[in-house]
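User: quick one, sequence for these tokens?
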């Protein structure tokens, strides 16, 4: 980008520099070890919280910074410089996936108990949607919350839950009326120290290794009714709203990651000589990289357009779905082509592209698959 995007001000630039500094000092030196260990320290959440990075758009009542949405865009863009999607995803689950619904709907008591400590990075949050038998088809979820006196009693299981092994609470999607379809879905805040809660397997994964992904079990977990978020039976609608921010940060991160992969590839291809000239000077690569740069620029325009609408509160489900679809598919293509440019070294862990290629694969699956995005776009286009 040769000049500042019109959406950003000098304050945004200063914030970008601050996030870059955080990423370079607190994440970059450690990510190889975290990937190897398949975990990272809890304190990373606290450090991000101390810098105000986990509550950018939340109110000052919960310790947030009350900033416009472009600060969140910058947060998602700068995180990719860690070159470790695992830790990035864990932090983004905390800031932009498991907590927005609490900000939007929570009572002052719910915000004080769950959101404020999450913003400080003291409590780790997880979002519990997916189940062994229900992912894309959210309405078919089977985890139930039945009323019993002043409590809900929760039974069921979730899977693929990011931050799941050590979450202090789960923003949990349940069925309060199993017969009612969409209208039977509700959102409940579940502290993980309740009786009957247990963590199953920590799942082994292809990529995003530094983050933990777990199975969760609920066996008669009893929580007071005041932990219901919003209204009972409105959970499907709340979740769809919540998904927009989740999908947007995925799209924005995908574009920033794709840009970075191309820059890495150019650096490598400039230093590697074949048949008497640097790899990037062979016409086939100059053209390939030009094509990728063009598509990344188009993707950025689409993501920024969706972010602009979202930040201004304009309905933008179609634009966000298009951005999630296009940017995440593109990131996979870019990863694949940039790995190819590295030749054999692209397959070796010494080069960042190898991890990026593995990590990218999640983008078209998590937070709503590409097929689900196409379905949403189709419906909203009257197809
Ligand atoms: C690393 C990782 C972290 C995750 N973190 C979380 C988390 O923190 N919280 C959480 O709740 N979930 C999480 N997920 C789950 C993720 O959101 C789901 O995997 C995703 O929504 C897809 O659901 P599924 O895996 O059940 O696939 P399924 O729904 O079983 O789909 C299987 C395939 O069928 C396709 N498909 C489904 N329906 C249709 C249709 N109508 N038309 C055409 N094709 C269709 C899908 O696109 C997919 O390709 C995570 C997943 C991973 C891999």
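Assistant:
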């Amino acid at each position: 980008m040769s000049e500042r995007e019109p959406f950003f001000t000098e304050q945004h630039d200063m914030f970008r520099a601050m996030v870059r500094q955080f990423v370079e000092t607190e994440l970059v030196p450690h990510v190889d070890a975290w990937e190897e260990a398949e975990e990272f320290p809890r304190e990373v959440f606290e450090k991000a919280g101390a810098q105000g990075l986990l509550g950018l758009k939340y109110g000052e009542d919960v310790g947030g910074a009350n900033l416009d949405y472009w600060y969140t865009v910058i947060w998602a863009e700068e995180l990719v410089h860690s070159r470790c999607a695992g830790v990035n995803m864990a932090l983004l689950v905390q800031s932009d996936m498991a907590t927005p619904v609490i900000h939007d709907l929570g009572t002052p008591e719910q915000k004080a108990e769950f959101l404020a400590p999450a913003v400080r990075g003291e409590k780790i949050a997880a979002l519990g949607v997916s189940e062994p038998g229900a992912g894309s088809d959210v309405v078919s979820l089977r985890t139930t919350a039945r009323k019993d006196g002043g409590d809900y009693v929760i039974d069921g299981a979730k899977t693929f839950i990011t931050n799941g092994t050590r979450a202090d609470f789960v923003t949990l999607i349940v069925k309060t009326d199993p017969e009612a379809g969409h209208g039977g879905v509700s959102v409940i805040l579940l502290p993980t120290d309740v009786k009957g809660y247990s963590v199953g397997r920590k799942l082994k994964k292809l990529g995003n290794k530094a983050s933990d992904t777990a199975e969760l079990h609920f066996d008669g977990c009893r929580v007071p009714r005041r932990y219901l978020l919003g209204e009972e039976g409105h959970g499907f609608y709340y979740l769809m709203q919540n998904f927009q921010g989740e999908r947007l940060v995925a799209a924005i991160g995908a574009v920033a990651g794709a840009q970075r992969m191309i820059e890495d590839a150019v650096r490598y291809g400039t230093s590697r000589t074949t048949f008497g000239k640097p790899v990037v000077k062979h016409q086939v690569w100059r053209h390939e990289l030009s094509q990728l740069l063009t598509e990344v620029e188009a993707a950025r325009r689409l993501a920024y357009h969706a972010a602009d609408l979202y930040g201004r509160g304009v309905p933008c489900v179609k634009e966000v779905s298009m951005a999630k679809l296009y940017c995440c598919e593109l990131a996979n293509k870019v990863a694949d082509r940039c790995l190819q440019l590295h030749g054999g070294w692209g397959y070796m862990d010494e080069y960042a592209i190898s991890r990026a290629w593995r990590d990218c694969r999640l983008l078209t699956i998590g937070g709503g698959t590409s097929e689900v995005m196409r379905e949403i776009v189709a419906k909203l286009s009257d197809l």
